[in-house]
Amino acid sequence: MLTRINGLHHVTALASGAQENNDFFTKLLGLRRVKKTVNFDAPEVYHLYYGDELGTPGTVMTYFPFPNARRGRPGAGEVAVTAFAIPKGSRDWWADRLDSHGVTGIRKQEYLGEARLRFDGPDGDGFALVETGDDRPPWTGGDVDADHAIRGFHSTQMRLNDKGATAELLRFMGYMQQDSAGDITRFALENGNGAHVIDIETLPHAPMATQGAGSVHHVAFSVDNAEAQAEVRKALLDTGYQVTPVIDRDYFHAIYFRTPGGVLFEVATNDPGFDRDEDRAHLGEALKLPAQHAHLRDVLEREYLEPIRD
Description:
It comes from Lutimaribacter pacificus. InterPro entries: Extradiol_RC_dioxygenase, Glyas_Bleomycin-R_OHBP_Dase, Glyas_Fos-R_dOase_dom, VOC_core. This is Glyoxalase family protein. By secondary structure, the protein is α+β, with helices and mostly antiparallel strands. Helix content is about 15%, strand content about 35%. The longest helix is centred in the C-terminal third of the chain and has 14 residues, at about 225-240. The chain starts with 6 loop residues before the first strand and ends in a 6-residue tail after the last helix.
């Protein structure tokens, strides 16, 4: 069993427009945009990162906004719900705030003993806010005060046809079954980073999901550094998983592998962090390009990347 995984690092999804995506996370949910860069494999598309003040692992939601992208079709083999932690007693405040901004799919739930608020993102994304006693410091640079502000991720919920092999993988990664109710089985790390819960919803007859705007592309797990990542990579390879070589993503180093249920997993290092090329007071303000795409700046800004109004 692995012992080097801390919990979630980030969750990356697809969107249909950069401005709407930016406004939803910064102006409505009150997160900080900590990096404005581009997709390493498709530099004509932004890669936007939202999180706490510094983009601490376990707080960061990231997006590839493909202009006018078709919505994904929900189904099995995907992350269906990304949940954020909020303070106890703040669910009603959030319900009113989301409703006043025209958010759809708002519904209050009691879920595995937790007060939870489900809602849709701009592209039909599945989100939830979960009341917890989470003491991680929030970002309060927007108009959401500390009594209500998001603390970071609470969990992700995968929707699978069969949980067996993926549950075995999670146990190998250090997760233990914590609870279950109906179609939901919850796994958690004993000493995680606050974003250390994974739920599996088992729906044997659900069709496979089709990715598009509103779909989660991958979910990333945190390790402290390159040494821990190398240990995890070797263990996964020894177990039979096909794992990529280490890829430098400028702000972390990443490896990827496909889970038995079809969800793409990443293992990302906590270092060097989002302040490696920007002052902490100005994270996410300037367009930062990876070195291999720096020569494209003029054409990208002129022809492909829509200006984002903050």
